[in-house]
């Protein structure tokens, strides 16, 4: 009887140990893992560190949605800079003349240049040959603080190939975006710049109205594969948004340089100014030629290309300083005819400085205006 009891006890123990062993076996194709109590006993160098979680994509706004903003007040970011790079401060409304479709407007000038918090969306191409630039772009995260200032600003990240992904929501923690950029994976063969800009502007339009809105676009110069936003729609979208676009592109190709030498559409004479469609058609053509450059010109931002890592960092520092040192001119348009309006800003006195200002906006009144197709 004692032997029988001993055999039953041994059998139950064997079953228990077997069940524990089976419970620890991996599923087919799954790596074997030690139980937690044994993992804790391993020396630190033998424990496998937990991989940091990847950023979860944020919900995307629909870039096909038409933005409608109140054009009773038009904001015109304006940079006044000497050839030496020195920004001219202390100007007021008497120092500027602003025309809307050739008609002089009454303007207000906000000269408290660095007081508003900043919301910036960084849109980074990862498709086509963008992977060749990843080592430079990975340095961007630490430079974002130049845009954000003293802790009141926030940045978000959009990456794109054939599709735009809202990768990181607005945060003041630039280290988060730095990690995202350092882990950026090459995309497919597309560069849907129009779609990515449309998405980025939609995201910025949801920010509080008292914040300066900046889009930093890092990409090649031409769109490849956008299927949600057309060039016409993007001209309207930038025109109805108070978003400053800064475009940084990879080194231009020889063909692009030759096109620029022949003269850009933006710098050529408009021709028959009585034709209201002429400025729109020219803007669309310029977007097809170089998206980043034309959007920067339209919004009053800046455009530059880069080749080396040092050049990339220098351009970022320069445009960040300019973005935070622009006057904000504003006016109530005397004529709200729907469509694209041309803006010109001039200094009333020769300071030997260049003026970089928004060149157009899109008027939408209460009656439904015709939509670009």
From TrEMBL:
Stretches with biased composition (Low complexity): 30-55
Q: Which UniProt keywords apply?
A: Signal
Coiled-coil annotation: which residues? none
Q: Which domain of life is it from?
A: Bacteria
Where are the annotated segments for Disordered? 26-66
Q: Does the keyword Iron apply?
A: no
Task: Report the leader peptide range.
Answer: 1-23
The chain positions of domain VWFA read: 151-219
Q: Does the keyword Transmembrane helix apply?
A: no
InterPro entries registered for this protein in UniProt = VWF_A (IPR002035), VWFA-rel_acidobac-type (IPR017802), vWFA_dom_sf (IPR036465)
Q: What is this protein's record name?
A: VWFA-related protein
Where does this protein come from, organism-wise? Answer: Acidipila rosea
